Amino acid sequence: MAKPQLFDVKKIRKDFPNLSVKVHGKTVVYLDNAATTLKPQSVIDATVHHYSAETSNIHRGVHYLSEKATAEYEKTRESVRAFLNAAKSSEIIFTKGTTDSINLVAHSYGRTFLQKGDEVIISEMEHHSNIVPWQILREEKGIVLKVIPMNNNGEFSVADFEKQLSPKTKFVSLVYISNSLGTINPVAEIIKISHRQNIPVLIDAAQTVNHMPVDVQKLDCDFLALSGHKLYGPTGVGVLYGKTDLLNKMPPYQGGGDMISSVTFEKTTYNVLPYKFEAGTPNIAGVIALKAAIDYINSISFENIMQHEQELLDYGTKVLTKIPGLRLIGTAKHKAAILAFVLPNIHAHDLGTLVDEDGIAIRTGHHCTQPVMKHFGIPATSRVSLAFYNTKEELDLLAASVKKAIKVFSPKL
Amino acid sequence: MSDNSRAELYQQVILEHHHKPRNFGEMADATHDAEGYNPLCGDHLHIYLHVDDNNLIDNVMFKGDGCAISRASASMMTVALKGKPVAEAKTLYEEFHQLILGHLKPEKDPNQLGKLAIFSGIWQYPSRVKCASLCWHTMKGALDKTKSVSTE
Prior knowledge:
The complex is a heterodimer.
Chain A: H1 9-13, E1 22-23, E2 26-27, E3 29-30, H2 41-53, H3 64-84, E4 92-95, H4 98-113, E5 119-123, H5 132-141, E6 144-148, H6 158-164, E7 169-175, H7 187-196, E8 201-204, H8 216-219, E9 223-227, E10 238-242, H9 244-249, E11 260-263, E12 268-270, H10 284-300, H11 302-321, E13 327-329, E14 338-342, H12 348-356, E15 360-361, E16 363-365, H13 370-376, E17 381-385, H14 392-409
Parallel strand pairs in A: 3-15, 5-6, 5-7, 7-8, 8-9
Antiparallel strand pairs in A: 1-2, 4-10, 9-10, 11-12, 13-14, 14-17, 16-17
Helix pairs in contact in A: 2-10, 3-10, 4-5, 11-14
Chain B: H1 12-19, E1 32-38, E2 43-51, E3 57-65, H2 68-81, H3 86-100, H4 129-143, E4 148-150
Protein backbone atom coordinates (compact mmCIF):
# COMPACT_ATOMS: atom_id res chain seq x y z
CA MET A 1 0.00 0.00 0.00
CA ALA A 2 1.36 3.38 -0.97
CA LYS A 3 2.32 5.52 1.95
CA PRO A 4 -0.25 8.30 2.30
CA GLN A 5 0.85 11.88 1.97
CA LEU A 6 1.87 13.79 5.04
CA PHE A 7 -1.18 15.04 6.93
CA ASP A 8 -1.07 18.80 7.22
CA VAL A 9 -4.26 20.10 8.78
CA LYS A 10 -3.42 23.74 8.11
CA LYS A 11 -3.04 23.02 4.42
CA ILE A 12 -6.20 20.92 4.37
CA ARG A 13 -8.24 23.69 6.00
CA LYS A 14 -7.44 25.95 3.07
CA ASP A 15 -9.40 23.57 0.84
CA PHE A 16 -12.61 24.36 2.78
CA PRO A 17 -13.70 27.97 2.15
CA ASN A 18 -16.46 27.71 4.74
CA LEU A 19 -13.80 27.34 7.46
CA SER A 20 -12.82 30.99 7.09
CA VAL A 21 -16.33 32.36 7.42
CA LYS A 22 -16.85 34.86 10.25
CA VAL A 23 -19.68 34.20 12.69
CA HIS A 24 -20.44 37.08 15.10
CA GLY A 25 -17.08 38.57 14.18
CA LYS A 26 -15.09 35.40 14.89
CA THR A 27 -13.73 32.74 12.57
CA VAL A 28 -16.22 29.91 12.69
CA VAL A 29 -15.35 26.83 14.74
CA TYR A 30 -17.36 24.21 12.92
CA LEU A 31 -18.04 21.25 15.19
CA ASP A 32 -21.31 20.05 13.70
CA ASN A 33 -19.99 17.61 11.14
CA ALA A 34 -22.43 14.85 11.99
CA ALA A 35 -25.21 17.17 10.83
CA THR A 36 -23.38 17.96 7.63
CA THR A 37 -19.76 18.22 6.62
CA LEU A 38 -18.25 21.22 4.90
CA LYS A 39 -17.36 20.95 1.23
CA PRO A 40 -13.88 21.18 -0.24
CA GLN A 41 -13.37 23.65 -3.08
CA SER A 42 -13.14 20.75 -5.55
CA VAL A 43 -16.73 19.72 -4.75
CA ILE A 44 -17.94 23.29 -5.12
CA ASP A 45 -16.02 23.61 -8.41
CA ALA A 46 -17.51 20.38 -9.76
CA THR A 47 -21.01 21.64 -9.01
CA VAL A 48 -20.35 25.01 -10.62
CA HIS A 49 -18.65 23.38 -13.60
CA HIS A 50 -21.65 21.17 -14.29
CA TYR A 51 -24.05 24.08 -14.19
CA SER A 52 -21.82 26.49 -16.08
CA ALA A 53 -20.33 24.24 -18.76
CA GLU A 54 -21.95 20.82 -18.89
CA THR A 55 -25.63 21.24 -18.05
CA SER A 56 -27.74 18.58 -19.62
CA ASN A 57 -30.08 15.80 -18.70
CA ILE A 58 -28.69 12.29 -18.63
CA HIS A 59 -29.55 8.97 -20.27
CA ARG A 60 -31.69 10.81 -22.80
CA GLY A 61 -30.17 13.01 -25.45
CA VAL A 62 -27.82 12.01 -28.22
CA HIS A 63 -26.22 15.42 -28.23
CA TYR A 64 -22.74 16.12 -26.92
CA LEU A 65 -23.70 17.72 -23.60
CA SER A 66 -26.10 14.97 -22.68
CA GLU A 67 -23.53 12.30 -23.41
CA LYS A 68 -20.93 14.22 -21.44
CA ALA A 69 -23.24 14.62 -18.42
CA THR A 70 -24.23 10.96 -18.61
CA ALA A 71 -20.59 9.90 -18.69
CA GLU A 72 -19.73 12.09 -15.67
CA TYR A 73 -22.77 10.83 -13.77
CA GLU A 74 -21.83 7.22 -14.43
CA LYS A 75 -18.22 7.92 -13.46
CA THR A 76 -19.46 8.71 -9.96
CA ARG A 77 -21.27 5.38 -9.84
CA GLU A 78 -18.00 3.63 -10.55
CA SER A 79 -16.25 5.84 -8.03
CA VAL A 80 -18.79 4.93 -5.32
CA ARG A 81 -18.48 1.27 -6.27
CA ALA A 82 -14.74 1.42 -5.73
CA PHE A 83 -15.16 3.46 -2.53
CA LEU A 84 -17.42 0.80 -1.02
CA ASN A 85 -15.71 -2.08 -2.86
CA ALA A 86 -19.03 -3.27 -4.27
CA ALA A 87 -18.86 -6.11 -6.78
CA LYS A 88 -20.66 -4.19 -9.54
CA SER A 89 -21.44 -0.56 -10.24
CA SER A 90 -25.05 -1.57 -11.02
CA GLU A 91 -25.42 -2.28 -7.28
CA ILE A 92 -24.98 1.46 -6.61
CA ILE A 93 -28.29 3.32 -6.70
CA PHE A 94 -28.38 7.08 -6.39
CA THR A 95 -31.01 8.42 -4.00
CA LYS A 96 -31.71 11.69 -2.19
CA GLY A 97 -29.86 10.56 0.90
CA THR A 98 -29.75 7.96 3.64
CA THR A 99 -33.39 8.50 4.60
CA ASP A 100 -34.46 7.98 1.01
CA SER A 101 -32.29 4.86 0.74
CA ILE A 102 -33.80 3.28 3.85
CA ASN A 103 -37.30 4.19 2.71
CA LEU A 104 -36.58 2.58 -0.65
CA VAL A 105 -35.73 -0.70 1.04
CA ALA A 106 -38.58 -0.57 3.58
CA HIS A 107 -41.00 0.29 0.81
CA SER A 108 -39.83 -2.00 -1.98
CA TYR A 109 -38.33 -4.97 -0.15
CA GLY A 110 -40.43 -4.61 2.99
CA ARG A 111 -43.80 -4.31 1.31
CA THR A 112 -43.07 -7.21 -1.02
CA PHE A 113 -41.31 -9.72 1.17
CA LEU A 114 -42.36 -9.01 4.76
CA GLN A 115 -45.64 -10.39 6.02
CA LYS A 116 -47.79 -9.95 9.10
CA GLY A 117 -45.97 -11.22 12.18
CA ASP A 118 -42.51 -11.08 10.58
CA GLU A 119 -39.97 -9.48 12.87
CA VAL A 120 -37.63 -6.64 11.93
CA ILE A 121 -34.76 -5.92 14.32
CA ILE A 122 -33.43 -2.40 14.84
CA SER A 123 -31.58 -0.92 17.83
CA GLU A 124 -32.35 1.61 20.52
CA MET A 125 -29.83 4.03 19.02
CA GLU A 126 -31.30 4.28 15.53
CA HIS A 127 -31.82 7.65 13.91
CA HIS A 128 -35.51 8.35 13.34
CA SER A 129 -34.89 7.60 9.67
CA ASN A 130 -34.27 3.95 10.57
CA ILE A 131 -37.27 3.74 12.91
CA VAL A 132 -40.15 5.51 11.21
CA PRO A 133 -40.04 3.72 7.81
CA TRP A 134 -40.38 0.41 9.66
CA GLN A 135 -43.21 1.77 11.79
CA ILE A 136 -45.03 2.83 8.63
CA LEU A 137 -44.56 -0.72 7.38
CA ARG A 138 -45.78 -2.06 10.71
CA GLU A 139 -49.01 -0.11 10.34
CA GLU A 140 -49.45 -1.29 6.81
CA LYS A 141 -48.37 -4.92 7.03
CA GLY A 142 -48.48 -5.82 10.70
CA ILE A 143 -44.78 -6.60 11.00
CA VAL A 144 -43.26 -6.65 14.49
CA LEU A 145 -40.47 -4.25 15.38
CA LYS A 146 -37.88 -5.62 17.83
CA VAL A 147 -35.42 -3.22 19.43
CA ILE A 148 -31.96 -4.17 20.69
CA PRO A 149 -31.52 -2.31 23.98
CA MET A 150 -28.26 -0.54 24.77
CA ASN A 151 -26.39 -0.10 28.03
CA ASN A 152 -25.55 3.16 29.76
CA ASN A 153 -22.34 3.57 27.80
CA GLY A 154 -24.48 3.62 24.69
CA GLU A 155 -23.47 0.24 23.32
CA PHE A 156 -25.02 -3.14 22.60
CA SER A 157 -23.30 -6.46 22.14
CA VAL A 158 -23.71 -9.27 19.62
CA ALA A 159 -25.32 -11.25 22.46
CA ASP A 160 -27.86 -8.44 22.97
CA PHE A 161 -28.70 -8.75 19.28
CA GLU A 162 -29.03 -12.54 19.51
CA LYS A 163 -31.60 -12.15 22.28
CA GLN A 164 -33.89 -10.36 19.81
CA LEU A 165 -33.29 -12.91 17.08
CA SER A 166 -36.01 -15.49 16.55
CA PRO A 167 -37.23 -17.82 13.81
CA LYS A 168 -39.64 -15.01 12.92
CA THR A 169 -36.86 -12.49 12.25
CA LYS A 170 -36.99 -11.59 8.59
CA PHE A 171 -34.98 -8.38 8.39
CA VAL A 172 -32.29 -6.52 10.35
CA SER A 173 -31.67 -2.78 9.91
CA LEU A 174 -28.90 -1.26 12.01
CA VAL A 175 -26.89 1.87 12.37
CA TYR A 176 -23.13 1.33 12.01
CA ILE A 177 -22.03 4.47 13.90
CA SER A 178 -24.56 6.26 16.08
CA ASN A 179 -25.01 9.92 15.20
CA SER A 180 -25.89 10.94 18.75
CA LEU A 181 -23.44 8.74 20.70
CA GLY A 182 -20.59 7.96 18.32
CA THR A 183 -20.79 4.24 19.12
CA ILE A 184 -19.35 1.91 16.48
CA ASN A 185 -21.60 -1.14 16.46
CA PRO A 186 -20.43 -4.73 15.88
CA VAL A 187 -22.29 -4.99 12.56
CA ALA A 188 -19.93 -7.46 10.83
CA GLU A 189 -20.61 -10.16 13.41
CA ILE A 190 -24.34 -9.41 13.40
CA ILE A 191 -24.47 -9.74 9.61
CA LYS A 192 -22.70 -13.11 9.83
CA ILE A 193 -25.17 -14.40 12.41
CA SER A 194 -28.19 -13.05 10.51
CA HIS A 195 -27.06 -14.77 7.32
CA ARG A 196 -27.13 -18.15 9.06
CA GLN A 197 -30.91 -17.65 9.00
CA ASN A 198 -30.87 -16.04 5.56
CA ILE A 199 -31.94 -12.71 7.04
CA PRO A 200 -30.97 -9.69 4.95
CA VAL A 201 -29.24 -6.85 6.78
CA LEU A 202 -29.34 -3.14 5.98
CA ILE A 203 -26.57 -0.96 7.39
CA ASP A 204 -27.13 2.76 7.95
CA ALA A 205 -23.64 4.04 7.21
CA ALA A 206 -24.50 7.75 7.09
CA GLN A 207 -22.10 8.50 9.96
CA THR A 208 -19.56 5.83 9.01
CA VAL A 209 -18.31 6.42 5.49
CA ASN A 210 -16.74 9.75 6.47
CA HIS A 211 -14.84 8.27 9.41
CA MET A 212 -13.52 4.91 8.22
CA PRO A 213 -13.31 2.67 5.16
CA VAL A 214 -16.33 0.49 4.49
CA ASP A 215 -16.03 -2.65 2.36
CA VAL A 216 -19.49 -3.97 1.55
CA GLN A 217 -18.17 -7.29 0.27
CA LYS A 218 -16.08 -7.88 3.37
CA LEU A 219 -18.98 -6.81 5.62
CA ASP A 220 -21.29 -8.90 3.44
CA CYS A 221 -24.18 -6.53 4.19
CA ASP A 222 -27.18 -6.84 1.88
CA PHE A 223 -27.96 -3.14 1.79
CA LEU A 224 -26.03 -0.07 2.85
CA ALA A 225 -27.27 3.50 2.95
CA LEU A 226 -25.26 6.71 2.94
CA SER A 227 -25.60 10.46 2.34
CA GLY A 228 -23.33 12.52 0.14
CA HIS A 229 -23.51 15.60 2.33
CA LYS A 230 -22.02 13.81 5.35
CA LEU A 231 -19.19 12.71 3.09
CA TYR A 232 -17.99 16.23 2.19
CA GLY A 233 -20.27 16.13 -0.84
CA PRO A 234 -23.45 17.97 -1.79
CA THR A 235 -26.81 17.74 -0.08
CA GLY A 236 -29.66 15.99 -1.86
CA VAL A 237 -27.65 13.01 -3.05
CA GLY A 238 -27.23 9.67 -1.38
CA VAL A 239 -26.53 6.07 -2.18
CA LEU A 240 -28.19 2.76 -1.66
CA TYR A 241 -25.91 -0.19 -2.14
CA GLY A 242 -27.75 -3.48 -2.60
CA LYS A 243 -26.76 -6.98 -3.61
CA THR A 244 -27.77 -7.73 -7.19
CA ASP A 245 -29.98 -10.74 -6.49
CA LEU A 246 -32.01 -8.82 -3.90
CA LEU A 247 -32.32 -5.68 -6.02
CA ASN A 248 -33.44 -7.77 -8.98
CA LYS A 249 -36.18 -9.40 -6.92
CA MET A 250 -37.47 -6.04 -5.66
CA PRO A 251 -40.17 -4.04 -7.43
CA PRO A 252 -39.47 -0.38 -8.30
CA TYR A 253 -39.81 2.16 -5.53
CA GLN A 254 -41.14 4.93 -7.77
CA GLY A 255 -42.42 4.95 -11.31
CA GLY A 256 -41.40 7.45 -13.95
CA GLY A 257 -38.84 8.24 -16.57
CA ASP A 258 -35.51 6.44 -16.79
CA MET A 259 -36.71 3.44 -14.79
CA ILE A 260 -38.50 1.82 -17.72
CA SER A 261 -37.51 -0.17 -20.78
CA SER A 262 -40.80 0.27 -22.57
CA VAL A 263 -44.16 1.75 -21.74
CA THR A 264 -47.51 1.07 -23.31
CA PHE A 265 -50.85 1.68 -21.65
CA GLU A 266 -51.21 -2.07 -21.31
CA LYS A 267 -47.82 -2.92 -19.90
CA THR A 268 -44.57 -1.38 -18.77
CA THR A 269 -41.27 -3.21 -18.67
CA TYR A 270 -38.85 -1.98 -16.07
CA ASN A 271 -35.32 -1.00 -16.78
CA VAL A 272 -32.34 -3.01 -15.54
CA LEU A 273 -30.32 -2.22 -12.42
CA PRO A 274 -29.56 0.34 -11.23
CA TYR A 275 -31.94 2.44 -13.37
CA LYS A 276 -35.00 0.53 -12.18
CA PHE A 277 -34.66 2.43 -8.91
CA GLU A 278 -33.78 5.84 -10.34
CA ALA A 279 -37.07 7.26 -11.55
CA GLY A 280 -37.11 10.80 -12.85
CA THR A 281 -34.30 13.26 -13.40
CA PRO A 282 -31.87 12.77 -10.54
CA ASN A 283 -29.64 15.28 -8.78
CA ILE A 284 -27.16 15.24 -11.66
CA ALA A 285 -24.86 17.99 -10.39
CA GLY A 286 -24.95 16.47 -6.92
CA VAL A 287 -23.99 13.03 -8.14
CA ILE A 288 -21.18 14.44 -10.29
CA ALA A 289 -19.84 16.48 -7.37
CA LEU A 290 -19.98 13.43 -5.10
CA LYS A 291 -17.14 11.98 -7.13
CA ALA A 292 -15.05 15.04 -6.33
CA ALA A 293 -15.78 14.43 -2.63
CA ILE A 294 -14.67 10.80 -2.85
CA ASP A 295 -11.56 11.79 -4.78
CA TYR A 296 -10.80 14.33 -2.07
CA ILE A 297 -11.18 11.78 0.74
CA ASN A 298 -8.98 9.35 -1.14
CA SER A 299 -6.32 12.03 -1.53
CA ILE A 300 -6.26 12.53 2.25
CA SER A 301 -6.54 8.75 2.91
CA PHE A 302 -8.54 7.07 5.64
CA GLU A 303 -5.31 6.17 7.38
CA ASN A 304 -4.68 9.87 7.99
CA ILE A 305 -8.32 10.67 8.67
CA MET A 306 -8.65 7.96 11.31
CA GLN A 307 -5.41 8.85 13.02
CA HIS A 308 -6.18 12.57 13.20
CA GLU A 309 -9.80 12.05 14.29
CA GLN A 310 -8.71 9.61 17.00
CA GLU A 311 -6.29 12.23 18.33
CA LEU A 312 -9.08 14.81 18.29
CA LEU A 313 -11.48 12.43 20.03
CA ASP A 314 -8.94 11.67 22.76
CA TYR A 315 -8.09 15.33 23.20
CA GLY A 316 -11.72 16.46 23.14
CA THR A 317 -12.66 13.82 25.71
CA LYS A 318 -9.83 15.08 27.92
CA VAL A 319 -10.66 18.78 27.76
CA LEU A 320 -14.41 18.34 28.07
CA THR A 321 -14.37 15.88 30.97
CA LYS A 322 -12.17 18.34 32.90
CA ILE A 323 -15.12 20.74 33.01
CA PRO A 324 -16.80 20.35 36.42
CA GLY A 325 -20.17 18.64 36.22
CA LEU A 326 -19.95 17.83 32.51
CA ARG A 327 -21.24 14.36 31.74
CA LEU A 328 -20.49 12.63 28.47
CA ILE A 329 -23.42 10.84 26.85
CA GLY A 330 -22.00 7.99 24.82
CA THR A 331 -18.93 6.40 26.33
CA ALA A 332 -18.67 3.27 24.22
CA LYS A 333 -15.33 1.49 24.00
CA HIS A 334 -15.43 1.72 20.22
CA LYS A 335 -16.50 5.12 19.11
CA ALA A 336 -16.05 7.67 16.37
CA ALA A 337 -15.13 11.34 16.87
CA ILE A 338 -18.46 12.39 18.32
CA LEU A 339 -18.71 13.90 21.82
CA ALA A 340 -22.17 14.45 23.23
CA PHE A 341 -22.63 15.84 26.71
CA VAL A 342 -24.93 17.45 29.23
CA LEU A 343 -24.24 20.04 31.91
CA PRO A 344 -26.01 20.01 35.26
CA ASN A 345 -27.54 23.49 35.17
CA ILE A 346 -27.56 24.52 31.53
CA HIS A 347 -30.02 23.27 28.98
CA ALA A 348 -28.37 22.26 25.69
CA HIS A 349 -30.20 24.98 23.78
CA ASP A 350 -28.95 27.69 26.09
CA LEU A 351 -25.42 26.36 25.71
CA GLY A 352 -25.82 26.22 21.94
CA THR A 353 -26.82 29.89 21.83
CA LEU A 354 -24.02 30.94 24.18
CA VAL A 355 -21.19 29.13 22.36
CA ASP A 356 -22.59 30.39 19.06
CA GLU A 357 -21.76 33.85 20.32
CA ASP A 358 -18.11 32.76 20.18
CA GLY A 359 -18.58 31.55 16.60
CA ILE A 360 -18.73 27.91 17.66
CA ALA A 361 -21.22 25.67 15.86
CA ILE A 362 -22.36 22.65 17.81
CA ARG A 363 -25.61 20.74 17.55
CA THR A 364 -28.03 20.83 20.45
CA GLY A 365 -31.21 18.84 20.80
CA HIS A 366 -32.27 15.24 20.46
CA HIS A 367 -30.40 14.65 17.19
CA CYS A 368 -33.34 12.77 15.68
CA THR A 369 -32.74 10.02 18.23
CA GLN A 370 -35.47 10.61 20.82
CA PRO A 371 -35.29 7.02 22.16
CA VAL A 372 -31.63 7.65 23.01
CA MET A 373 -32.59 10.76 24.99
CA LYS A 374 -35.29 8.76 26.74
CA HIS A 375 -32.78 6.06 27.65
CA PHE A 376 -30.59 8.59 29.43
CA GLY A 377 -33.55 10.48 30.89
CA ILE A 378 -32.54 13.78 29.29
CA PRO A 379 -34.39 16.09 26.90
CA ALA A 380 -31.38 16.99 24.81
CA THR A 381 -27.59 16.93 24.56
CA SER A 382 -24.93 19.20 23.14
CA ARG A 383 -23.02 17.37 20.47
CA VAL A 384 -19.56 18.02 19.14
CA SER A 385 -18.88 16.04 15.98
CA LEU A 386 -15.45 16.24 14.48
CA ALA A 387 -13.94 16.04 11.03
CA PHE A 388 -10.37 15.68 9.83
CA TYR A 389 -10.12 19.47 9.32
CA ASN A 390 -10.79 20.21 12.99
CA THR A 391 -7.96 21.01 15.36
CA LYS A 392 -7.07 20.74 19.04
CA GLU A 393 -7.06 24.54 19.16
CA GLU A 394 -10.72 24.51 18.17
CA LEU A 395 -11.47 22.10 21.01
CA ASP A 396 -9.68 24.45 23.40
CA LEU A 397 -11.86 27.32 22.17
CA LEU A 398 -14.94 25.18 22.73
CA ALA A 399 -13.89 24.23 26.26
CA ALA A 400 -13.22 27.89 27.11
CA SER A 401 -16.58 28.91 25.70
CA VAL A 402 -18.42 26.20 27.66
CA LYS A 403 -16.70 27.38 30.84
CA LYS A 404 -17.75 30.93 30.07
CA ALA A 405 -21.35 29.79 29.62
CA ILE A 406 -21.25 28.02 32.97
CA LYS A 407 -20.13 31.30 34.51
CA VAL A 408 -23.00 33.21 32.89
CA PHE A 409 -25.38 30.65 34.31
CA SER A 410 -24.02 30.41 37.83
CA PRO A 411 -26.55 31.99 40.21
CA LYS A 412 -25.53 35.38 41.57
CA LEU A 413 -25.74 35.13 45.33
CA MET B 1 -30.53 44.12 22.60
CA SER B 2 -27.76 44.83 20.13
CA ASP B 3 -26.89 42.66 17.18
CA ASN B 4 -23.34 41.97 18.18
CA SER B 5 -23.80 40.80 21.75
CA ARG B 6 -25.94 37.75 21.80
CA ALA B 7 -25.26 37.10 25.47
CA GLU B 8 -27.73 39.88 26.07
CA LEU B 9 -30.40 37.29 25.45
CA TYR B 10 -29.41 36.01 28.85
CA GLN B 11 -29.97 39.23 30.75
CA GLN B 12 -29.86 39.18 34.49
CA VAL B 13 -33.65 39.31 34.82
CA ILE B 14 -34.03 36.22 32.66
CA LEU B 15 -31.31 34.31 34.50
CA GLU B 16 -32.82 35.33 37.81
CA HIS B 17 -36.25 34.00 36.83
CA HIS B 18 -34.56 30.86 35.52
CA HIS B 19 -32.83 30.24 38.83
CA LYS B 20 -35.80 31.22 40.98
CA PRO B 21 -38.95 30.67 38.97
CA ARG B 22 -42.07 32.32 40.41
CA ASN B 23 -45.31 30.41 40.83
CA PHE B 24 -43.58 27.11 40.16
CA GLY B 25 -45.49 23.95 40.98
CA GLU B 26 -48.82 22.23 40.53
CA MET B 27 -52.21 23.70 41.31
CA ALA B 28 -54.79 21.32 42.75
CA ASP B 29 -57.86 23.50 42.12
CA ALA B 30 -57.04 24.78 38.64
CA THR B 31 -60.06 25.65 36.53
CA HIS B 32 -57.96 25.56 33.37
CA ASP B 33 -54.75 23.72 32.57
CA ALA B 34 -52.84 22.49 29.56
CA GLU B 35 -49.57 20.89 28.61
CA GLY B 36 -47.20 22.46 26.13
CA TYR B 37 -44.50 20.62 24.27
CA ASN B 38 -41.76 21.79 21.96
CA PRO B 39 -40.57 18.66 20.16
CA LEU B 40 -37.55 20.49 18.78
CA CYS B 41 -36.00 21.15 22.21
CA GLY B 42 -37.85 18.70 24.37
CA ASP B 43 -39.21 21.63 26.39
CA HIS B 44 -42.22 20.56 28.34
CA LEU B 45 -44.51 22.82 30.37
CA HIS B 46 -47.72 22.46 32.30
CA ILE B 47 -49.67 25.65 32.90
CA TYR B 48 -52.41 25.89 35.55
CA LEU B 49 -54.88 28.74 35.87
CA HIS B 50 -57.57 29.49 38.38
CA VAL B 51 -60.26 31.76 36.95
CA ASP B 52 -62.82 33.10 39.45
CA ASP B 53 -66.51 33.87 38.91
CA ASN B 54 -65.66 37.39 37.70
CA ASN B 55 -63.45 36.00 34.93
CA LEU B 56 -60.38 37.12 36.81
CA ILE B 57 -57.21 34.97 36.79
CA ASP B 58 -56.63 34.89 40.53
CA ASN B 59 -53.91 32.26 40.42
CA VAL B 60 -51.52 30.89 37.79
CA MET B 61 -48.75 28.36 38.15
CA PHE B 62 -46.44 26.32 35.94
CA LYS B 63 -44.16 23.36 36.11
CA GLY B 64 -41.94 21.53 33.66
CA ASP B 65 -38.50 21.24 32.15
CA GLY B 66 -36.92 23.42 29.59
CA CYS B 67 -34.19 25.81 28.69
CA ALA B 68 -33.61 29.05 30.57
CA ILE B 69 -35.57 31.07 28.04
CA SER B 70 -38.67 28.89 28.27
CA ARG B 71 -38.50 28.75 32.05
CA ALA B 72 -37.93 32.46 32.55
CA SER B 73 -40.65 33.28 30.05
CA ALA B 74 -43.12 31.05 31.89
CA SER B 75 -42.14 32.50 35.25
CA MET B 76 -42.54 36.06 34.03
CA MET B 77 -45.82 35.21 32.34
CA THR B 78 -47.31 33.91 35.59
CA VAL B 79 -46.34 37.14 37.33
CA ALA B 80 -47.84 39.21 34.52
CA LEU B 81 -51.14 37.30 34.43
CA LYS B 82 -51.94 37.06 38.11
CA GLY B 83 -54.95 39.21 38.93
CA LYS B 84 -55.70 40.03 35.29
CA PRO B 85 -59.09 39.48 33.61
CA VAL B 86 -59.11 36.67 31.05
CA ALA B 87 -59.71 39.16 28.23
CA GLU B 88 -56.57 41.05 29.20
CA ALA B 89 -54.55 37.81 29.27
CA LYS B 90 -55.60 37.24 25.70
CA THR B 91 -54.53 40.75 24.74
CA LEU B 92 -51.16 40.18 26.39
CA TYR B 93 -50.87 36.92 24.47
CA GLU B 94 -51.37 38.80 21.20
CA GLU B 95 -48.93 41.55 22.17
CA PHE B 96 -46.28 39.09 23.32
CA HIS B 97 -46.67 37.20 20.06
CA GLN B 98 -46.13 40.40 18.03
CA LEU B 99 -43.20 41.32 20.31
CA ILE B 100 -41.21 38.12 19.81
CA LEU B 101 -41.74 38.22 16.07
CA GLY B 102 -40.24 41.69 16.09
CA HIS B 103 -43.46 43.31 14.83
CA LEU B 104 -44.24 45.18 18.05
CA LYS B 105 -41.55 47.63 19.16
CA PRO B 106 -42.20 48.27 22.86
CA GLU B 107 -40.39 51.62 22.84
CA LYS B 108 -42.78 53.13 20.26
CA ASP B 109 -45.88 50.91 19.95
CA PRO B 110 -48.44 51.22 22.78
CA ASN B 111 -48.61 48.03 24.81
CA GLN B 112 -49.35 46.51 28.20
CA LEU B 113 -46.26 44.28 28.25
CA GLY B 114 -44.33 45.94 31.07
CA LYS B 115 -41.39 43.76 32.12
CA LEU B 116 -42.18 41.25 29.40
CA ALA B 117 -40.65 43.70 26.93
CA ILE B 118 -37.30 42.19 27.90
CA PHE B 119 -37.95 39.53 25.26
CA SER B 120 -38.02 42.15 22.50
CA GLY B 121 -34.73 41.06 20.94
CA ILE B 122 -35.50 37.39 20.67
CA TRP B 123 -36.71 37.64 17.07
CA GLN B 124 -33.02 37.80 16.18
CA TYR B 125 -32.73 34.18 17.34
CA PRO B 126 -35.33 32.45 15.19
CA SER B 127 -34.57 29.04 16.68
CA ARG B 128 -35.28 30.37 20.18
CA VAL B 129 -38.54 32.23 19.57
CA LYS B 130 -40.53 29.09 20.33
CA CYS B 131 -38.74 28.72 23.67
CA ALA B 132 -40.21 32.05 24.77
CA SER B 133 -43.63 31.50 23.25
CA LEU B 134 -44.33 27.96 24.47
CA CYS B 135 -45.78 29.05 27.82
CA TRP B 136 -48.01 31.63 26.15
CA HIS B 137 -49.37 29.16 23.62
CA THR B 138 -49.97 26.70 26.42
CA MET B 139 -51.73 29.32 28.56
CA LYS B 140 -53.94 30.27 25.63
CA GLY B 141 -54.64 26.58 25.05
CA ALA B 142 -55.63 26.19 28.69
CA LEU B 143 -58.03 29.14 28.48
CA ASP B 144 -59.45 27.75 25.23
CA LYS B 145 -59.69 24.31 26.87
CA THR B 146 -57.15 22.72 24.54
CA LYS B 147 -55.42 20.09 26.64
CA SER B 148 -52.22 19.68 24.68
CA VAL B 149 -50.25 22.25 22.71
CA SER B 150 -47.28 21.66 20.45
CA THR B 151 -45.10 24.31 18.87
CA GLU B 152 -44.42 22.15 15.82
